[in-house]
Design brief:
With about 200 residues, the chain is an alpha/beta fold. Helix content is about 35%, strand content about 25%.
Length: about 200
Amino acid sequence: MKLNRIEYVLMNNPIRSAFQQHFEARRLVRMGGPMDGGKALELGCGRGVGVELIFKMFHAESVDAFDLDPRMIEKAKRRLSAYGSRVRLWVGDASDISAPDATYDAVFDFGIIHHVPEWRSVLTEIMRVLKPGGRFYGEEVLKPMIVHPFTQCFVRHPQDDRFDAATFSQELKNAGFESVSTEEFSGVFAWFTAHKANVA
């Protein structure tokens, strides 16, 4: 689901970028540790702020990223041009990731999965494209915020089958993830890290 005009503005401003850097990304580094090299994927990269953080704070060697909105990919290309061949961008769908199995050392979700009606399919895709031992880092908006009438006045989200933190954590486990860790804020936001098992 693409962002409406209000959410487009909310997601593309300096305040959002600062919050993502100084709060969200720091929390995920603390929960799951840095990558220290390797290849990462970001779901729904927007204008490229998350990709920059994956390089600077998680220390990825290269980052692939996609977004459903072609406008965002054009913005990201301009923002990330200095990274050259270390970045690959495309228009894509989180429920059908255009990558072979076991491609990535880490997959990042900075608040994208709650936009997807069939969100469990995204977890299956993340598991598929992660290498054995790979990590998932996620920040998500939870059901009480999404279904609240005030929120619905301003932004569009799927309303059916939304998740709370416990449900999302359980579905990560159901998808095959291990070492699932969750931190929650007031029942409306949560952060998740998880690992794909190493092959024996």
